[in-house]
Every structure is written in C-alpha cells, then in structure tokens.
Amino acid sequence: MRLASLVLLLLSPLAACSGPTAPQDVGVCWLGGADASGPARFKPVARDVDSLESCAVLLEAMRLKGGAEIDGAYQGYFIFADSREISSAMHTAGIRYPIFQPPQRASIDRDLTRLMKEQGGKLPDAGALSLQRQ
C-alpha cells in the first residue's frame, strides 16, 4: 500500500505535463493555442516556415497588428508572444524559454513595423522573412 502511494506521488508531476500538445506538422506555423474551457484549437498561418524563430516572428507581427497576446505553435512547441517576451514551451503550463533576447526583439519589432507600413498594413509573408543571427 505504501509502495502504491509512493508510485502515485512520483507519477503525479508527469500527469501535469500531459496537457494539450502542439501540432507537429513539419514547417507549419500555427495560430491558436490551448483554451482553458476546451481542447487546443489551431489554424495554419503559414506553411514552409523554416524555423521556430521565423514562426515566432510571424506571430509577433500579428501581435503588433493589434493583439495583446498571441499564442501559436511550431513543430510540437507552443509559442507565446505578449508585451513582455516571445517564448516557447513544450507544454502550455511548462517552463517558457525566451526565443529572442530584448535587444533582438526590439530590432525585430522595428523591422516588422517598417515592413508592414511599406506593405500598406499587410502582414509579412513567411518567405519574405530572413533572420540574421547576431
């Protein structure tokens, strides 16, 4: 009986990680995310996206255009963009890791704002994005 209680106690943290999963389709950037009132809902934003970072930039463009917070996903990872940071996690309640550092994000936001202004307010196309690692 004691052993069964110990096993249940040890397995309970694993159960917490079994929440909704992010779509795993290769190269697809998704908008949406987990909703506390039901299952996760996602819709594709772009296909043939080459990296999690590029997907995060597309989601940030959507946030800059008028959303306070944007959730999305890329190849099994959740992406969260809000006014504080752009981060990713394997689970909605998991540890969130920053995708960009503050100076990188400031540069990305500046370039996205300029690009969307040049395009008459349209969101950038995934193929038009290129990230330079600094």
Strand content: 15-25%
Percentage of residues in helical conformation: 25-40%
What general outline do the C-alpha atoms trace? globular
Which structural category fits the helices and strands?
Answer: alpha+beta
The helix/strand series, from N terminus to C terminus, equals HEEHEEEEH
Sheet with most strands: strand arrangement: 2-1-3-4-5-6
Cα(first) to Cα(last) distance is 56 Å
Average pLDDT works out at 83
How many structural domains are formed by the residues? 1
Describe this entry's structure for a reader.
- With 134 residues, the protein is of the alpha+beta class.
- It has one domain.
- It contains three helices and six strands; from the N terminus they run αββαββββα.
- It has a six-stranded antiparallel beta sheet with strand order 2-1-3-4-5-6, covered by helices on one side.
- Helix 2 crosses helix 3.
- The longest helix has 17 residues, at 102-118.
- It is globular.
- The N and C termini lie far apart (56 Å).
Characteristic terms for this protein:
6 strands, alpha+beta, 6-stranded antiparallel β-sheet, 34% helix, globular, disordered N terminus, 134 residues
